[in-house]
Fold each of these.
Amino acid sequence: MRIVIALALGVMFSLMGTAAMAQEDIVLRGMGSFHVGGRIAEVSGKPVKEIQRVPGGPMSKLDPNGQFMVEQMYVQYALPKARKGKYPLLMWHGGGLTGVTYESTPDGREGWMNMFVRKGWDTYVSDAVERGRSGFASPDVWSDAPIFLNYQDPYERFRIGAGEGSWNADPPRRKLLPGSQFPAEAYDNYMKQSVPRWLGTDKAIIDAYVALVDKVCPCVLLTHSQGGSFGFKVAEQRPDKIKAIVAVEAATAGVIANAPKLKDVPVLMMFGDYVDEHPRWAAYKKTDMEYGNAVKAAGGTVDWINLPEIGIKGNSHMMMQDKNNAAIADVIQKWLVAKGLVD
Amino acid sequence: MRRLVLTLMAGLIASPALAQSKEPIALRDMGSFHIGGRQIEVSGQPVKEVLFTPGGVPAKVDPNGTYQVEQMYAQYFLVQNPKGKLPLLLWHGGGLTGVTYETKPDGNPGWLNYFLRKGWDTYISDSMERGRSGWTDKFKGDPVFLPLGDPWERFRLGPSGSWNADKVKRTTYPGVQFPLDAYEQFMKQGVPRWVTTDDAIVAAYIELVDKVCPCVVLVHSQGGSFGFKVAEARPDKVKALIAVEPSATGSKDKVAALKMPIAVIYGDNAKEHPRWGKIRQNVVGYADAIKGAGGNVEVIDLPDIGIKGNTHMMMMDKNSDQIADVMQKWLVAKGFAD
């Protein structure tokens, strides 16, 4: 099924001239995964339970006390045989999501993970602590409750629809932003990618990202949304190991007082369409700009790309899944080449 | 970096099976998707103001509305030169995710890479509620979190009383194949599980089978029960089933549907184990019922064919390739691979 779609897309793309590459094999000299970071937490004073792990199976005791492995992070990597990126490329997703952000798009097209592997980057896609394959800790360890997003929330907040009131349960009555590049017909599939998030776990998330950086870097970071804040904060701690940051719609940036630590780390800040019209994203952009200016004031390099200004219109907050995601990946690649990070 | 060096070193010092790991893996495609699930409505809850990022912009989050729940994540790797005649689906066990089949806790390649190198188009999923499938607070009951020591004895690294928080005081079965130094690393793969969600898990697996099969399904532990149940529901699409240490079965009154070849594999110290002995006996009874109805099941106890020391997590054991070889041979013998 998928193959038929891939072939059909391949035909369409080659007509459009972009995607002979979609039909080429991906040849990897290595692929795999690992967990990094984490700590052992102690729980005590809770009663022992007797549970049946499978219906029809025998009862077994479960002691909720003791030591638990918590706050580790999952990372999957694909290493192309023909490596061209000078450093590994680490892709960090945004809030309420996992590394799946960068895999196949909700409508089944190729995502940025495959695109950057095809461009010759050793690519590491992780699930932030608490999300996806990183697992999450019990309420005995993390006391606050996670939040869950309903269908309406990302549609209006991620600039797919035209702001508040644009969502409707009935698809024909949804108000998509004019010219939106988001594959709106696959919005249900996008919602299947979302996972719960906690609001009190930033430190644990950052600690695990630092452990990842210590393991696989020097490297280039490509971050999205909430991941932008983590990327800048990790770079402030490990400026010697981060060779560049591509921050896609960072929400928010790092700590202004630490911005000078990034003076030798080239930064690209990128925003999609309809940002200035959206009060929330306009505010994030302003925060990012203040941080970027602080990096520049310390002698650093910060480049800004507002996609509509270079003629790329209609991009949502989830631009790596938008229909023109290949064009945006090309913009990023061009910047990385210009910074001397590609052989 | 270190991982690569490890792989190369392993290639140099170890068996012919590992020598092949220096060859690149050529894929005609790789990707992922979510499947299944349903929408639920939540109403009557107060709107919250949420600060998503410290120093960020507060956002209103209305907990009412439509939610997506019970979907399942699957990732696929399609080889350049398929030798397996059908896709191979790898389903993990309880409290774990598809990571079970990826790189082993000691950093060596796992069964995913093994089967790709043998030419199988391979699909790895995270069962509904686990890993990248996401979860909801609308499941019945509370999730179960495994203490650090729990699998040590329950997964037969050591007998009863062998676990100790102090590494040097832990004991094991003689000749155990699990990479003991990587036990903590294994525990990083654990995720919470509910014990009330089997029907939704099976429903999502059936959707996966409807999307990508006919196929061969390889299941582990809790996944065993799901594999048997899905094979009962889709006997025309599950063309072969390998059940690695299944912890439960399907229904004895539905076995007449199961005419596909089935292999059941148990590791060492299972028959005598107070818990695994019972589980295995139950599965053998189910296998007998399948055979009684004209089906084709082989129960392979690894020690009986000279492969000793394997734990419940045999896909992570040091000799995991040797066990994969047993399965690959079985698949070839049954005509599913060239």
Amino acid sequence: MAAAPKPEAGLQWLLNAITLPRHARLGIGPTIALAVLVLIILSAVFAPLIAPHDPLLMDATQRLKGPSSLHPLGTDSYGRDILSRVITGGRISLVIGVSVAVASIGIGLAIGLVAGFFRRADAIVMRIMDGLMAIPSIMIAIALVALNGPSLWSVMAAIAIPEVPRVVRLVRSVVLSAREEPYVEAAIALGSSMPKILFQHLMPNTLAPLIVQGTYVCASAILTEAILSFLGAGVASEIPTWGNIIAQGRSYFQIKPTLILWPGLMLSLCVLSVNLLGDAARDRLDPRLRKRGE
Amino acid sequence: MTVQFKNRSFTDAEVVLDVRDLTVGFAGHPDAATVLGGVSLRIRAGETACVVGESGSGKSVTSLSIMGLLPKGSLEATGGGIGFEGRNLLDLGPSAIRALRAHKISMIFQEPMTALNPLMRVGEQIEEVLEAHTALPARDRRTRVLDMLAQVHLPDIERIYLSYPHQLSGGQRQRIMIAMALILEPRLLIADEPTTALDVTTQKQILGLIDELQQRHGTAVLFITHDMGVVADIADTVHVMKHGRIVENGAIETVLRQPRDAYTKQLLRAVPSLTPRTPRDTQEGEAILTVQGLQKVYGEAGIFSRSRPHVAAQEVDFTVHPGRTVGIVGESGSGKSTVARCIVRLIDPSSGKIRIAGTDIATLPPRALKPYRKHVQIVFQDPFRSLNPRWTIARSLIEGPVNLGIDRNTALARATELLAMVGMPEDTLERFPHQFSGGQRQRIAIARALAMEPSLLVADEAVSGLDVSVQAQVLALLSDLQAKLGIAILFITHDLRVAAQVCDEVMVMQKGRIVEHDTAANVLLRPQHDYTRALIGAAPGRGWDFANFRELAQASP
């Protein structure tokens, strides 16, 4: 593709997405997903600068207004600016998505390595994981909120705990098959210590599937957070999150559907983008596809 | 012993398959190198044509082209023709090819397990072929299937008819495949390495079966193999392939006696002889390895397991002296790899003693075992999996020495020497395993084992995955290193030819026991045990001295 004439620089990367050889290009879907996600992340990070109003500022004179130059997406039942709230609401969602993904993968990786490598630990650890998996995150969340009151930490813990067993299973299965590889047996014969085999030979095999799994966990955490907020078991209702905004718009959505349309749309776009990127990562990192290239 | 080649004449027989100047290239890349560069071969009714060549020579692509099974979008026929019953197969549409595949041309593959549907009784699978392609009523179909099962010499055909693939042995599954392939009485049977995954004794039976059915039905057989011994036993004509071309063809005896092409000669010379090598001098000194009463039982009663215990190895006793090569031969499941893995302590023996450097290591816990690791090293069969794909060669080579506490720079310097010793260039160090061929990787794996300066090297089928010419090089390398370093080698193989060429002593294992243990010459030329005789009798092409293009001077009794 080097010989292709150079179009405008701005279009170049989009063009690359279509014209690069199959194995190198991102594909049109994931490219759009990446662009959308970058926009959402940037707007959330710079929310205080971008948002036209204070998302918490109530104005009784501006209740349930339609779109105007002052409030491009209108206002809610307390006269708060919907655009500002939706932009700010992304912050909590993204923080929860990313931190739940990192936490559940970190914990799951550690437990999974142990379960996959030490046969004695395996049976016990996996039964505990099965038990954990049986508890819905909504129930854990309600229990934690009842104990500690609504907080970011309770919500993150509630979402992360049920995800951990899934990660453990994934890591365990990768370790179980990798430990039978002759190069691992050769390492045993070469007198390599257990931590060396575990961390240098076995763990790198888990990274590709974990990256993929991480994106799915992230997307599902964002969604679960919204559900918990909507049910009132999430972060305190005065903090704008997409779930909270939808929950508060619920009573008025029949007369003003945009109250839940905009946060709902952002939520869907965000989850869809993360999932699309996860699919692209899987296609790229899938060991079966990669083997064909070798 | 005389060698019985097939020297049937087919000049009057009808031509079944006529491939003319067939070229195959990468689809969409007309400029790229061709995969097949003008292959021509002709098979007549009742004839067995063998296509022989090393991996990547294009033999499988040839058979797939004939079946119309080239992977769509990656390979395509770009020229020439495949004549079959007066038609050019390349001109036929997909449905016409499909009809032909069922009725006139059929194929059997290397791995029968993956070619059969695991969820369906094998009898029904064969019957399905009849259901799809004939108008036979149900009762006649069943009779026909049972008749075919009898023809492929399966025992207790009523029971086999109702069996699922996993309930049958590898040989039985291949018989089912053959029954399925031949039930519509095709004109042409393509057999792509059909016996490569089978043990020699089973291989002999399957080859005999194909031959018998061919004579009964007058089928033309295109037999693809890498094994010159098999070729000598079954071929009427042989086509030698290299880099997508047929470099030599002719009647089997002519090609084996008077090969014209340099590559054919090289291929034949690389076939190890069944005549045992002259044994190395017995060296003075204490035994490096003494194994006494070694036993390994799998599935011993535990809390969670209720399965019957399986004895993988028992009453295994032997010693290995410095500078000697001791072979363990046997078929799959004989326990030879179990013994090897116990000695390297990749698995824990159930009982018995393994004495290395004066210490019994059979029951040592991992920590205490560590200093003894250096004495015994292992080289595995699969060169594509025995090196960590994410590590540079340098990192793999110094892994062992660094574990022993040698500093990195010393270890790296030593790694460079070792690479030179195994015949690899110096820039190997910074590269990754996927940049090397199978033979090269096996050299690297040997270098990695030698980095520990072991006194015993366990080679577990270390050359079985390699092409014959590469195999010959790696065997020569092992022999060299042994002479240079005085290490002992425990050589595990299923291939009697390889064992004959490298081993001073040979142990024959069957069902977990050593049934015969003697010098290589005695075991191979004067076998005592029935099983050893059966193994030697089943070795393909055993009366022929491939490397010298003549009968074996000193044939086995």
